[in-house]
């Protein structure tokens, strides 16, 4: 339990509701900042405006998946007023406090660094990335089904990258009966892909390998599906780019050649906000609980 711990939850979307629920259940003292339009009532949670005073006693601050934008604005679905996180806010936190977010832009990193406050980026964690890969793969599948006139079963699918997302994507497609080609650059990934029944190939051979595909799912966050590659892709193929913005596809050339290509960011929050929220809630609460136990042991 987190009795006696003060947690400030600032902004966000439906995913934050799972986070609020979790911390209320764990008996933390919860401050909701940027939730003025939220109808749900949570006992043990109080709505307060964003101010340095509100953060003075916070042991943890939980920001949305994208913490702030480059100017410090925190997105909030449940508030009409703008939430602007400043140095003054972060400086008002007690020195032991931690700020949790999915991924931080330079603005937030600098703010925490100058104030000497620890920043935890949840999406950098392997466990979070692996859990998140499940709604990501389901979302990508949904887009594939919506944008094709063939079944996934029996289709030739290509997955680029065998990291946390690529692995789940490839396995999900295989489970539906697709023939799955996997583009990798390391021999150990080649061996693992082979062992799992995929058809592995080295990315150097990408231009030849794309000539018979129906669907391509990219997870490599660098320009990989270049104009030269797209020139070899059949017109019927659909490209779904899962890599973070700007993706790894030459979208301009794809459009010019008439190949359907789309960037698909933020799928967990779109297709499964409840699950995505639970992933965050479980991880942050676990981390805060571990900190509380370590702190108690030190006393
Ligand atoms: P990851 O585990 O690091 O996997 C990335 C993969 O890309 C690895 O297989 C890596 O190969 C490969 N790679 C990286 N740079 C490469 C290069 N220059 N050439 C060839 N291969 C390269 O990352 P992840 O967690 O799977 O995430 C992948 C991407 O998806 C990220 O951009 C992430 O932000 C994004 N993402 C998007 C969504 C969404 O909703 N669209 C959801 C989750 C994640 P090696 O192992 O050989 O390095």
Condensed summary:
The protein contains 12 helices and 14 strands. By secondary structure, it is an alpha/beta fold. The longest helix is centred in the last third of the chain and has 26 residues, at 273-298.
Tally of individual domains: 2
CATH superfamily membership of the largest domain: NAD(P)-binding Rossmann-like Domain
Radius of gyration: 22 Å
The helix fraction, in percent, is 25-40%
- Largest sheet, spatial ordering of strands: 3-2-1-4-7-8
Tertiary shape: elongated
Strand count, sense and closure of the main sheet? Answer: 6 strands, parallel
Low-confidence stretches: none
The CATH class of the largest domain? Alpha Beta
Helix and strand content put the structural class at alpha/beta
The kinds of small molecule bound in this structure are: NADP nicotinamide-adenine-dinucleotide phosphate
Structural topology:
Layout (H helix, E strand, L loop, with lengths): L5 E5 L3 H12 L3 E5 L11 E4 L3 H4 L4 E3 L10 E2 L8 E2 L2 H5 L6 E4 L4 H10 L2 E4 L4 H21 L9 E5 L3 H12 L3 E6 L2 H9 L3 E4 L3 H4 L5 E4 L8 H4 L7 E4 L9 H7 L2 E4 L3 H5 L1 H26 L1
Parallel strand pairs: 1-2, 1-4, 2-3, 4-7, 7-8, 9-10, 9-12, 10-11, 12-13, 13-14
Antiparallel strand pairs: 5-6
The chain binds NADP nicotinamide-adenine-dinucleotide phosphate.
């Amino acid at each position: 339990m987190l009795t006696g711990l003060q947690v400030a939850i600032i902004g966000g979307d439906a995913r934050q509701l799972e986070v609020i629920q979790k911390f209320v259940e764990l008996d933390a003292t919860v401050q909701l900042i940027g939730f003025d339009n939220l109808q749900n009532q949570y006992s043990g949670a109080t709505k307060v405006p964003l101010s340095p005073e509100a953060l003075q006693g916070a042991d943890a601050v939980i920001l949305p998946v994208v913490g702030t934008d480059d100017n410090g604005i925190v997105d909030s679905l449940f508030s009409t007023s703008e939430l602007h996180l400043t140095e003054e806010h972060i400086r008002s936190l007690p020195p032991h406090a931690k700020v949790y977010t999915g991924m931080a832009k330079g603005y937030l990193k600098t703010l925490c660094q100058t104030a000497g406050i620890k920043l935890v980026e949840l999406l950098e964690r392997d466990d979070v990335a692996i859990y998140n890969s499940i709604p990501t793969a389901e979302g990508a599948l949904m887009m594939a089904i919506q944008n094709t006139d063939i079944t996934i079963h029996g289709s030739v699918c290509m997955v680029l990258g065998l990291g946390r997302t690529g692995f789940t994507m490839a396995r999900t497609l295989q489970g539906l009966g697709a023939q799955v080609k996997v583009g990798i650059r390391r021999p150990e990934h080649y061996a693992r892909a082979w062992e799992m029944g995929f058809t592995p190939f080295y990315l150097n051979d990408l231009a030849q390998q794309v000539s018979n595909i129906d669907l391509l799912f990219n997870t490599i966050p660098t320009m990989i599906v270049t104009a030269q590659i797209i020139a070899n892709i059949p017109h019927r193929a659909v490209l779904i780019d899962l890599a973070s913005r700007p993706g790894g596809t030459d979208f301009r050339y794809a459009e010019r050649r008439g190949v359907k290509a789309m960037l698909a960011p933020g799928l967990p929050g779109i297709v499964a906000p409840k699950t995505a929220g639970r992933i965050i809630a479980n991880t942050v609460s676990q981390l805060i609980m571990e900190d509380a136990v370590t702190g108690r042991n030190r006393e």
